[in-house]
Amino acid sequence: MFSKKFATIVILLVCTSLTSLSLVTGACTMGQKEEIIRQCKFHIRRVSPILNVPRGSACCVEVRKVRDMRCIIKQIGHKEKKSYSRKRVAGLEKKCH
């Protein structure tokens, strides 16, 4: 009986710590990066004029879903770097919060 409870508690602790670790490290997904690029493309393109980003926009909604925009910036590939400004992507965090 004791070993079953102990095993259950250990499993719960492991699951909780893994979930908490992803929240602390600010892990993001490729899907989040793609959605931010899709929703924010007019604000982050290198050739676009700098525009004000409305806080209620779909762009800001997606930005607020990500804990750390540095994670998104790290996922921007070589081809995307030619089209999109990493500095503007980083700036979305301040503009949308």
TrEMBL record:
Keywords: Signal. It comes from the Eukaryota. This is Bifunctional inhibitor/plant lipid transfer protein/seed storage helical domain-containing protein. Residues 1-26 form the signal peptide.
